[in-house]
Amino acid sequence: MDTKGRVSIPSLIRTELARHSPPDPILTMGPECLRLFTADGWETYAGQIMDANVFDPDAEAMRRFEISSSMDAKVDAQGRLLIPGWMREEAHLGREVVIAGMGGWLELWDKARFAAENDRVRSNYREIRAALADRARKGD
């Protein structure tokens, strides 16, 4: 990330964003990172959050966290995405940013925090996998 808060988006990702986001992509908060969606991807994801029970405090918290922080994210002619200062601060982004593909969206992480999260997952991999398998058996 440069001193103005711009992150260079790799050309292959820029091409995919342009192809799937005739309107601008959407940038929002994620847990310990930022999330970047195509316009269509955001519509689907935000719809799932908005469809959650309005009387559920957790659903309300997710709306407040992700929906209210969402914004259009323009990629400039040089392929850079400007990240507002408040978002950089909230996500603890430093100079080195990792862009991680997550299937339906991209995550932008501080490099050291991304490595720490991957270390946590790696050291608990079997337990995490077993918990997911258990949830799948229960239909969660």
Care to give the gist of this entry?
The chain is of the alpha+beta class and 140 residues long.
Rg over C-alpha atoms, rounded to the nearest angstrom: 16 Å
Structural class: alpha+beta
CATH class equals Alpha Beta
End-to-end Cα distance: 39 Å
Strand content: 15-25%
Helix content: 40-55%
Shape: globular
CATH superfamily (homologous) name:
Transcriptional regulator MraZ domain
Detail the poorly predicted runs. Answer: none
Describe the structure.
The protein contains six helices and seven strands, in the order βαββααββαββαα. A hairpin with a 4-residue loop joins β6 (97-101) and β7 (106-110). The protein has 140 residues and is α+β, with helices and mostly antiparallel strands.
SSE blueprint and pairings:
Layout: E1 6-8, H1 11-20, E2 26-30, E3 33-37, H2 39-50, H3 57-67, E4 71-72, E5 80-82, H4 85-90, E6 97-101, E7 106-110, H5 111-123, H6 125-138
Antiparallel strand pairs: 1-5, 2-3, 2-4, 3-7, 6-7
Features:
140 residues; alpha+beta; Chemotaxis protein chec; five-stranded antiparallel beta sheet; two-stranded antiparallel ribbon; 6 helices; 7 strands; 20% strand; globular
